[in-house]
Amino acid sequence: MSNASPDRDGGARERLQRWLPKLVLSPSCVLVLFFVYGFIAWTSYISFSDSGMMPDYTWVGLHQWSRLWTSWTWGIALHNIWVFGLLYIVSCIVLGLILAILLDQRIRAEGVLRTIYLYPMALSFIVTGTAWQWFLNPGLGLEKTMHDLGWQSFSFNWLIDSNMAIYTVVIAAVWQATGFVMAMFLAGLRGIDGEMIKAAQIDGAPAWKIYARIIIPQLRPVFLSAVVVLAHLAIKSFDLIVAMTGGGPGNATAVPATFMYSYAFSRNEMGIAAASAVFMLAVIAALIIPYLYSELREPRS
Amino acid sequence: MSAASPAARRGAATRVVLYAILLVFAVIYLMPLYVMLTTSFKTLEEIHQGNMLALPGEWTLAPWREAWGSACIGLECNGVHGYFFNSIKIVIPAVLISGLLGAFNGYVLTKWKFRGHKIVFGLILFSCFIPFQIILLPMARVLGILHLANSTGGLVLVHIVYGIGFTTLFFRNFYASFPDELVRAAQLDGAGFFTIFFRILLPASVPIIVVTIIWQFTNVWNDFLFGVSFASGDSAPITVALNNLVNSSTGVKAYNVNMAAAMVAAVPTLIVYILAGKYFLRGLMSGSVKG
Predict the structure, then answer these.
(1) How far apart are CA B163 and CA B168, in angstroms?
(2) Distance from CA of B243 to the nearest CA of A (A)
(3) What's the CATH code of the domain at A114?
(4) What's the pLDDT score for residue A95?
(5) Which residues of chain B have pLDDT under 70?
(6) Chain segment A236-247, per-residue pLDDT in tens
(7) pLDDT tens digit string along B41-100?
(8) Residue contact B101–A28, C-beta within 8 A
(9) Is the Cβ–Cβ distance between A74 and A68 less than 8 Å?
(10) How far is CA A197 from the centre of its chain?
């Protein structure tokens, strides 16, 4: 049947075949264009508008932005995200690398240990926050346990100390993400070419030197990926802070994400909330776009 | 395998230290889970008098029963079970639909390349990384206009839209290494777009389907930001209910009930992780390390 008119049949089919892929891709493209890029445009515009409880499209220039930058809480939020982000990224990478190197020594129970280090990753930040809030509870948690064990002078009340509360969030966040960073480094270590290492071993180089001079420099791409992923997780951190400290005591553990949420949904200051969100996006974009660009440009291995 | 094993050549003492350090870390990592579990089986009395690290002197299931069926969240005292089912109602359609869309996208972007396919992929991929604060305000309005505010349906939509980036990334990377020759041969045999996808690529996609399902399931189940922003009251997911239960300031804090509720929220993802941890790891690798 199809042999009778191969040309016409083939032509129509080919045209359909040419359009079908784009047709199949288009729903996702429409969704992403509208819900991601359209929304980014809308929020950006709102940050220059007079919006309060309801959107008001009157252009007010940098009014909301100057209110944002003069806000005391926003200053605390920026300071906190800087402290939190830096400590979180550095601790996760140092601990993750150490664990990966230790696990890479032909450990017998590697699978079990890896599972143990990694399981916190499967938990919700709300669960993690609940657990650590209880664990670090000054009255009943770690502090009391240490007292019971006879260490009467042990004191750990960071959770309710406004100068220290942000560090409790760092502890919980590091606990949750180290295993993931370890897994990244472990994969990197397994991918390293063994020739140079063998040569160095034959030359009698000590283990630490082999790691410092040969192995760790070769892990550079993993460091980069880990920093990007962790920085992006840090800037988005919201759940853990809500669950552990609720941004408190007072505003002591406010971060941009909690700031944005409270201005958007409790204080009805849409304009400032939008400005803070745009700022967060700008920081992440400055970090992610060069990274994605370099990843996508490279020939696939 | 291990590229360097200098420690293997050193004495047994080094090995002992090595194992000791790894064990200490293992204990530290397990501690919060251990404390959560044991606390959830203790009576409040024992919590106030006893040691946090001790096993329950008298095991009780009452906290679990209360957390599941009668703990007060907001004004209602029905426990977390309704919210648990909300999360299930959200997670199943959200995972399936975003996964299917991602599979099609990955297929088109690797096997039916067109001019500008890289830009399209870049635009989709960037949506994985945006801080969701940027979409909270307009999304709240759009859900209101669609009459999806405060409903599990609204959250399904949100999770599909913002899940597409990761699912597309997974499938695109997977299909990129799928031999083009097979696709071309099938085309020469007269197989069309969908035939090739369902007969040739999909049967070979089991590993990446597993990875995508685990990743999306974990992300959607653990979501808090969307839940707290777009669903309140009866339609809230389990994470929001847990937070409301734990951080409500009324009455005496029932730590044992809180921990039982936290375990209820944690069990699905923990089970998925324990059953399919290997794939979970692979998913993290292919998703985050390789662009």
Answers:
(1) 9
(2) 6
(3) 1.10.3720.10
(4) 95
(5) 1-10, 249-251, 280-291
(6) 789 999 998 887
(7) 998 888 888 788 888 888 999 999 999 988 888 778 888 999 999 999 999 999 999 999
(8) yes
(9) yes
(10) 33
Q: Which residue has the tokens 């975003």?
A: B98
Predicted confidence at residue B84, as pLDDT, reads 96
Same domain for A94 and A150, yes or no, is: yes
Does residue A285 share a domain with residue A208? yes
Instruction: Say yes or no: A283 and A167 in one domain.
Output: yes
Q: How far apart are CA A198 and CA A210, in angstroms?
A: 10
Q: Is the link from the previous residue into A249 a cis peptide, with omega within 30 of 0? A: yes
Q: How far is CA A237 from CA A255, A260, B224, in A?
A: 8, 12, 11
Cβ of residue B25 closer than 8 Å to a chain A Cβ = yes
CA-nearest residue of chain B to A114?
A: B26
Contact indicator for A281, A37 with CB cutoff of 8 Å: no
Q: How far is Cα A170 from Cα A178, in angstroms, rounded to an integer? A: 12
Classify domain B81-289 at the CATH topology level.
MetI-like fold (1.10.3720)
DSSP assignment of B141-152 equals HHHHHTT-TTSH
Q: Is B139 within 8 Å of A35 (Cβ atoms)?
A: yes
Other CB atoms within 10 Å distance of the CB of residue B71 = 23
The total domain count for chain A is 2
Our CA-based measurement puts residue A236 at a distance from the nearest CA of chain B, in whole angstroms, of 6
Q: How many residues does chain B have?
A: 291
Please answer whether residues A266 and A125 qualify as being in contact, where contact means their C-beta atoms are separated by less than 8 angstroms.
no
Angle at A161 between CA A155 and CA A163, to 5 degrees: 115
Task: Identify the burial level of A28 via C-beta atoms within 10 angstroms of its C-beta, where 0-12 means exposed, 13-18 middle and 19 or more buried.
Answer: buried
The reported pTM is: 0.89
Check residue B255 and give left, alpha or beta (phi > 0: left; psi -120 to 50: alpha).
Answer: alpha
User: Identity (one letter) of the amino acid at B246?
Assistant: V
